[in-house]
Amino acid sequence: ITSRQSTSFALNMAETALTQDELKKMVGYKAVDDYVKSGMVVGLGTGSTAYFAVERVGNLLKSGELKDIVCIPTSERTKEQALSLDIPLVTLDTHSKLDVAIDGADEVDPSLNLVKGGGGALLREKMVEVMADKFIVIVDESKLCDGLGPGFPIPVEITPFCHEHTMRQVAALDSCAGCKPVLRMGSSSSNQPDGDDIAVTDNGNYIVDLHFEEAIKDARKMALDIKAVVGVVDHGLFCDMSTAVIIAGKDGISVKK
Ligand code: 5RP
């Protein structure tokens, strides 16, 4: 390989290697283009990937390619973004049935079970997404894993009242054996964990992140066990909910169903 060839190879790589943000934009836009049609009720997810889906909905409404849709945001952050784009918003109180919801995830296992809640929005996300006919997950390939747990802690939303007690009750569950529970501090997003104050969710609750060193053997059982602890509001295990996962990787876009 000559030095001219090697320079041109390096330039091509630089031109084609997409940034993480570009990958997120690709899947965010594709999910909207493939699954959102005029007249639908649409759930809008939370996070840096869902951001691009919301942006796409706003752009298509503005250009007139989408008409008569109403959306339900899954966090105050997403609500603000949607309002800034003039996206018509409703709530689950008036619209319990959604045609589609689109959201990111922190981890996706081979059965399409998810960990969500890295951004602290897990309760509203689950309330909205469980009511959607189709729940479309958008991720870059770094989110794929063989087993949930060691790659990303499981967030659990708990009431502030006697939260240390609730943390102990969760950690003592057989299905959570070996976990290290850590109360989330700073922002409610685990991506910005700095800060001396306890993180508070949009619902006024706390989040405890359960750190595991080994893959969780039975995520469905763990989900039921954690949910049964009094003081737990909900958790970031989203089992058997995904209709399709759209994945952006270095070789392009793929879809798992
Ligand atoms: C927020 C979430 C997000 O969907 C999840 O954290 C993924 O976020 P990002 O797309 O920024 O990686 O569950 O509660």
From TrEMBL:
EC number(s) from the headed UniProt entry: 5.3.1.6
Catalytic class of the enzyme: isomerase
Pathway membership, UniProt: Carbohydrate degradation; pentose phosphate pathway; D-ribose 5-phosphate from D-ribulose 5-phosphate (non-oxidative stage): step 1/1
InterPro entries (alphabetical): NagB/RpiA_transferase-like (IPR037171), Ribose-5P_isomerase (IPR050262), Ribose5P_isomerase_typA_subgr (IPR020672), Ribose5P_isomerase_type_A (IPR004788)
Record-linked SUPFAM superfamilies: D-ribose-5-phosphate isomerase (RpiA), lid domain (SSF75445), NagB/RpiA/CoA transferase-like (SSF100950)
Keywords: Isomerase, Signal
Pfam family, one: Rib_5-P_isom_A
GO terms of biological process kind: pentose-phosphate shunt, non-oxidative branch
Domain of life of the source: Eukaryota
Record field: catalytic activity: aldehydo-D-ribose 5-phosphate = D-ribulose 5-phosphate
GO terms of molecular function: ribose-5-phosphate isomerase activity
Alphabetized HAMAP family for the sequence: Rib_5P_isom_A (MF_00170)
Similarity section: Belongs to the ribose 5-phosphate isomerase family.
Protein name: ribose-5-phosphate isomerase
Source organism phylogeny: Eukaryota, Sar, Stramenopiles, Ochrophyta, Bacillariophyta
